[in-house]
């Protein structure tokens, strides 16, 4: 059987519906990821199967960071996720139309979008009248040459299957990126990483810039029914390390405790959580990150 596989980057303003759409696309098995985690920052949002195709949805963290001016390098890094993806889907909220935020994305697309497969999905169509949809579609397509336009309601499910089938058909032929039996495992690690990330964000507020990521390094099921989970918090600069650790390690301790409790409650069993802070200057480097997640890479990809 010929299989297809690849990455689909979902871009759009905060609240555009990226999480809701991913939920719909990946189905019940993986949707737990985004139900639990409100604002997804994980690099991989979920994996969907459609016929013979495996669609890996990836995120573009930091593309929008209100209150923070992004420098060029950061913007470039944030766009990296989209640039490396096989397909990019821009989600625009039907009732909000071309906001200044959408303008910014369109400008970004003009720079990186040439020769790439970029689709437009107008979301929340349940909120507007069809005439408004048509003029918005026209206006957006005048601004960028989208490969295809979809009208969807991620929440109600309208148009989602058509988008999914189209994405599957656009992906390059190749072996699946995740072995089938690993797909079920993936979300749990992601959930765990996301929990820790959320605790970090809550605790550090704006103190730390967004370039911080959490990865679940290992997950070990123990005979006594508990789980040992090792995570690494990657920061970009040495100085950030101290902030995460806190005075005499007080911050990381509190974060670890809060995250462990939540994970424990979520799993319904005991969890031993071990956190480590490491500096990784270019953590957005796709190839490195993906290969650490155990992914195989085809030649020339990421
Ligand atoms: N009416 C309506 N609401 C929707 C639809 N899709 C998403 N929403 C709502 O829009 C809000 C934001 O959706 P999310 O999926 O969290 O948006 P997001 O883009 O993932 O947001 P961030 O992760 O914060 O960037 C939620 O309250 C959703 O329920 C839709 O098709 N129709």
UniProtKB/TrEMBL annotation:
Region spans: G1: 12-19
Region annotated G5, chain positions: 152-154
Listed InterPro entries: G_ERA_dom, GTP-bd, GTPase_Era-like, KH_dom-like_a/b, KH_dom_type_2, KH_sf_prok-type, P-loop_NTPase, Small_GTP-bd
Gene: era
Gene3D superfamilies the UniProt entry points to: 3.30.300.20, P-loop containing nucleotide triphosphate hydrolases
Assembly: Monomer.
UniProt organism field: Thalassococcus lentus
Protein name: GTPase Era
Subcellular location: Cytoplasm; Cell membrane
Key words of the record: Cell membrane, Cytoplasm, GTP-binding, Membrane, Nucleotide-binding, Ribosome biogenesis, RNA-binding, rRNA-binding
UniProt function note: An essential GTPase that binds both GDP and GTP, with rapid nucleotide exchange. Plays a role in 16S rRNA processing and 30S ribosomal subunit biogenesis and possibly also in cell cycle regulation and energy metabolism.
Lineage of the organism: Bacteria, Pseudomonadati, Pseudomonadota, Alphaproteobacteria, Rhodobacterales
Domain of life: Bacteria
Sequence similarity: Belongs to the TRAFAC class TrmE-Era-EngA-EngB-Septin-like GTPase superfamily. Era GTPase family.
């Amino acid at each position: 059987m010929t299989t297809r596989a690849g990455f689909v980057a979902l871009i759009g303003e905060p609240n555009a519906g990226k999480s809701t759409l991913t939920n719909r696309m990946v189905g019940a098995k993986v949707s737990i990821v985004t139900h639990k985690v409100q604002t997804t920052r994980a690099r991989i949002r979920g994996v969907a199967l459609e016929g013979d195709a495996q669609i890996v949805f990836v995120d573009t963290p930091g593309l929008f960071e209100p209150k923070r001016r992004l420098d060029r390098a950061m913007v470039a890094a944030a766009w990296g996720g989209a640039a490396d993806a096989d397909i990019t889907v821009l989600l625009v909220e039907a009732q909000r139309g071309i906001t200044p935020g959408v303008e910014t994305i369109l400008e970004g697309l003009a720079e990186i979008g040439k020769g790439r497969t970029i689709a437009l999905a107008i979301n929340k169509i349940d909120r507007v009248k069809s005439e408004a949809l048509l003029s918005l579609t026209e206006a957006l397509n005048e601004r960028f040459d989208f490969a295809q336009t979809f009208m969807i309601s991620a929440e109600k499910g309208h148009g989602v299957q058509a988008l999914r089938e189209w994405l599957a058909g656009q992906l390059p032929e190749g072996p699946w990126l995740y072995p089938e039996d690993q797909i079920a495992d993936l979300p749990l690690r992601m959930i765990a990483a996301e929990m820790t990330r959320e605790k970090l964000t809550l605790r550090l507020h704006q103190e730390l810039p967004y370039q911080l990521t959490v990865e679940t390094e290992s997950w070990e099921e123990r005979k006594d029914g508990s789980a040992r989970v090792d995570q690494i918090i990657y920061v970009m600069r040495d100085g950030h390390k101290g902030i995460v650790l806190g005075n005499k390690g007080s911050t990381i301790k509190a974060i670890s405790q809060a995250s462990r409790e939540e994970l424990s409650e979520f799993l319904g069993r005991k969890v031993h959580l071990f956190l480590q802070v490491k500096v990784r200057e270019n953590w957005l480097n796709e190839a490195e990150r993906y290969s650490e997640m155990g992914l195989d890479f085809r030649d020339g990809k990421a």
